C-alpha cells in the first residue's frame, strides 16, 4: 500500500525559501516518476515539477530557475527546494506518484 506524506510547508516572506519533503512508503521512489503539483484557491491544480525514474527533471515555466526537484533514494523521499518565493507561489502543494497523492502541505508567501 503506497503512501505519500508531504511536509515542510509554512509561511515565508517574499524572496524567502522553503524545502518541501514527500516521504514515501510501500514503494521505492527511485523506481518511479514523481511530481509536485500545486493548487491555489479558485485555480486549477498545476504541475510544478517532475522527476523521471532516470533522474531527468522538468519544470513549469513559472518556477524554472527558482525551484529544484530532487530525490533521496536512501531516505525514499522526494524534495522540492523553493527559492526566491513570490506571492503567486502561495498554494497547497501535493506530491504524486504511482497514481497516489499526498494530503498536501500549505505554502503561503507574503
What does this structure look like?
Strand 4 (34-39) and strand 5 form a beta hairpin. The chain is 0% helix and 52% strand. The radius of gyration is 13 Å and the shape is globular. The model has no long low-confidence stretch (mean pLDDT 96). By secondary structure, the protein is mostly beta strands. The strands form two sheets. Strands 2, 4, 5, 6, 9, 10 and 11 form a seven-stranded mixed β-sheet that branches. A four-stranded antiparallel β-sheet has the order 1-3-8-7, with no helix packed on it.
Concise account of the structure shown:
With 110 residues, the protein is mostly beta strands. It has strands spanning 3-7, 10-12, 18-25, 34-39, 46-51, 57-59, 67-72, 77-82, 91-97, 100-101, 105-109. Helix content is 0%, strand content 52%.
Helix-strand blueprint:
Elements: E1 3-7, E2 10-12, E3 18-25, E4 34-39, E5 46-51, E6 57-59, E7 67-72, E8 77-82, E9 91-97, E10 100-101, E11 105-109
Parallel strand pairs: 2-11
Antiparallel strand pairs: 1-3, 3-8, 4-5, 4-9, 5-6, 7-8, 9-10, 9-11
Question: What is the number of E strands?
Answer: 11
Helix content: under 10%
Gyration radius (Cα, Å) is 13 Å
Counted by DSSP, the helix tally is: 0
Tags for this entry?
110 residues; mainly beta; 7-stranded mixed β-sheet; 4-stranded antiparallel β-sheet
